[in-house]
Amino acid sequence: MKINRLHMAVLAALLGSAALVGCKKKEEPAPPPVAAEPAPAETPAPMAATASVGSVDLGNAVGADMRVTAPMTTFAPKDTIYAAVATATSDPMASVPGKLGVKWTHVDSNQTVNEETKDITFAGDGVTDFQISKPSGWPTGKYKVEVSLDGNVVQTREFEVR
Q1: Which domains does the chain have, with CATH numbers?
Q2: Reported pTM
Q3: Signal peptide location in the record (predicted)?
């Protein structure tokens, strides 16, 4: 076989290509994509403290702590009638402004006897008292008191005057 210039040129090109491929610098793998730092978990907004009515006691006397001294459901016509409303806040350290109200009704005649609302700053546990009296005496019959917190009736107590 005769080697001519064309064969030599092809051979030189092949050897040159092989040399280039063999000498070629190794490519480093691409660095992994930088992960964005995860966003911090959202902390839920703190719930605003709320006030609630725990109990309502009726009686004809209250102590210095505004609690009814002897709970009862039957009263004499000339008794002063007290409603002691126990309240609490969801966070004992928070102050919660609100309105505490009562509506006294003579059930037999469907007449409102008295309505009263007090602006209160609730803080932890507390007691608020309301009272009604009638020097000439209450008509006998069935009555009820509705206790509301911020305009919503939350408890009702029924009682009787004999």
Answers
A1: 51-161 (2.60.40.10)
A2: 0.71
A3: 1-21
